């Protein structure tokens, strides 16, 4: 549960470190954490493309 919250909040709370944190969570054993991390990475990529 904590990893899910960290993955969901990392982009907003620590934008400079969010990519590193989320890349670690992409390979987490919990599928929910992986899904959230992938979604947040996609949002970061989308924001960077603008």
How can the largest sheet be summarized?
Answer: none
Relative strand content: under 5%
Number of domains: 1
Quaternary state of this entry equals single chain
Supply the helix-strand structural class: mainly alpha
Helix-strand pattern = HHH
- Give the distance, in angstroms, between the N- and C-terminal Cα atoms: 32 Å
Average residue pLDDT: 89
Instruction: Please count the beta strands (DSSP E, at least 2 residues each).
Output: 0
Which residues form runs of ≥5 with pLDDT under 50?
Answer: none
| Helical run tally | 3
Shape verdict: globular
Question: What is the helix content?
Answer: over 70%
Radius of gyration: 10 Å
Characterise the protein shown here.
The protein is built from three helices and no strands. It is globular and about 30 Å long. By secondary structure, the protein is mainly alpha-helical. It has one domain (2-49). The protein has helices at 2-13, 15-25, 31-49. Helix 1 runs antiparallel to helix 2 (15-25) and helix 1 runs parallel beside helix 3.
């Amino acid at each position: 549960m904590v990893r899910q919250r960290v993955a969901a909040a990392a982009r907003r709370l620590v934008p400079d470190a969010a990519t590193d944190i989320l890349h670690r969570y992409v390979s987490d054993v919990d599928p929910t954490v992986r899904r959230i991390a992938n979604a947040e990475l996609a949002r970061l990529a989308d924001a960077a493309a603008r």
